[in-house]
Amino acid sequence: MSCYIKKLNLDAAISIANPYTIKGMELEKDSTLSLLPQRDKAAFEEIFKSHFKRLHSYAFTILKDEAEAEEIVQQVFFKLWERTQTHSFSGSLNAYLYRAVHNESLNFLKHQQVRTNHQLHVAYSMKQHTDDSDKKVAAAELEKQIHSALNELPEQCRTIFQLSRFDELKYLEIADKLGLSVKTVEHQMGKALKLMRIKLVHFLKLLLLFFHI
Amino acid sequence: MNDNLLVKYLLGEATEAESETVQQWIQSEEANNRYYDQFKQVWEASRELAVRSTVDEHAAWKRFQYRIENGGKVKQAPGRQRFSWIKIAASLLLVVSISAVLYFAATRQPANKTIIAQSGQYVLIDTLPDGSQVTLNRNSSIRYQNKFTDTIRSVALKGEAFFNVTPDKKQPFVVSVNNTTIRVVGTSFNIRSENENTAIVVETGEVQVIAGGTITVLKGGEKLLLKAGNKVADKEVVSDQLYNYYRTHEFACDETPLWKLVDVLNEAYDAQIAIGKKELRNLPITTTFNNESLDKILEIIHLTFDITVNRKNGQIILQ
Fold this sequence. Notes:
Chain A is an all-alpha fold.
């Protein structure tokens, strides 16, 4: 069964090297969850290791805490491990993992709201203390606003934004990874920035006033 | 304009034809430009939120295996703190232990701590652990242990100091200066070291000077000069108390040649007094200036010896 996984990795490697020559169809078929080996530990290890860093970074950008982010990713993989025994899935493995990490992270935030708010506040106000110039205070405030706007994006929007902005993937690569059409990625990226612009436009105008007078 | 297309353009995903359309739209109106700029700002500022995972995936996998083997139970993740009473108790114990150690360390006299007393622009009076008193002239320093536990009371000197040593026959008082050792039991004396020369003036009691392989015994009112290389000169009888000026605030001259007084005045007042005529150098002065200003002293010199005092660019020339 592990041969499927091998092929998946190989395809992923090719898709990064030359994303425009790979047909999305074939990749999508290979990365479906239904092909996950049942309790094949070696295969699972490969999946875990090849996805861990990106998923961890994703949770990290939401939670701003490395240890909590790892806990989320570990939980997501553990649930996946449990389910491969009893269920069969269909759909993209990547899409499933990103969706799960996103939802679990937000869930965690919801339960830890008080603490996390405090943490974020501390993290950002520390930034403000060390960088005392007005410009840097404004930059830190903008970062904070963007962070909360990001966390309010719908899951698919947020995941695609993650892959585009932080993993620096092209639309086609994102489409391949998540088993979506390029058109969908394009639409979701437009939506992500549109929603963020609406959330931030007031603050952006303030910034403009702040620096250009 | 379609937002999706704007974003597509911003991210470099647009085709050439699309890019042209977007550029035209942006340039056509200032409002459009501003609108596009807001997208750009959001996009660029969001880069700051990027975090790269620094957790090693192989280590993470090991933790994951533990989780599988224990049916989902979590091994302590690195850097993750969970409350447990054992931990709280351990922390408290640690705090108490550290406090106790610090308390005992603070209340116990620290062994052999070196103390350095240093005078800067002002004369400094310091009392040593045995009660001996040291008056440090300006720009001088002494170094000693906070407790005289050794068989001798050892002090190292740089510059000039007057010592008034508490008598203790069992524990001699020893000053090291310029490779010279001055050994006393209980006495008062002045040591002045300048460059590699050392001058020892004894006021009361007896002092042994060990230098250049010889021991010279000095008694009250005697003076010894040691030149560079520890060449011991003959003992002299102290002619005046001028050396004591920094302690007594007096310039006591007793048949003292003018050049000597000028040297001391230069040192005491940071002045630049020069003698303009050679024949004036050895003019003997017998007087005591008590806590007087330099101007007053110069005035007295001028009146007493009919010497003119010329001031030029901070220099004072006696003629």
